[in-house]
Amino acid sequence: KFIYGDVDGNGSVRSIDAVLIRDYVLGKINEFPYEYGMLAADVDGNGSIKINDAVLVRDYVLGKIFLFPVEEKEE
Predict the structure, then answer these.
(1) How far is Cα 75 from Cα 70, in angstroms, rounded to an integer?
(2) 12 to each of 1, 18, 26, 30, 40, how far by Cα in Å?
(3) CA-to-CA distance for 50 and 12, rounded, in angstroms?
(4) pLDDT in tens, 12-46
């Protein structure tokens, strides 16, 4: 089991996760340091990892949102 937004696998969603997703989208990194990173990064649930996922993780860290769209779809 993994936590949506936690792409480094440390058990929590932090600003570094948003940075890692951004770097992945920009092509600076090719994979995440966590085996479930690709699944955890798709927080909008659209099947791909784009800059919107990084923005959503940032908003979650800042307390602007409390659930990711993919979690709302699962309820």
Answers:
(1) 9
(2) 13, 12, 23, 22, 11
(3) 21
(4) 999 999 999 999 999 999 999 999 999 999 999 99
Structure tokens that stand for 17 in this block: 């996760």
Q: Topology of domain 15-74, per CATH?
A: Type 1 dockerin domain (1.10.1330)
The CA-based angle 33-71-58, given to 5 degrees, is 55
d(CA 74, CA 55): 20
Q: What is the pLDDT of residue 73?
A: 80
68 burial type by CB count under 10 A (0-12 exposed, 13-18 middle, 19+ buried): buried
Q: Which residue type is seen at 26?
A: L
Domain ranges of the chain: 15-74
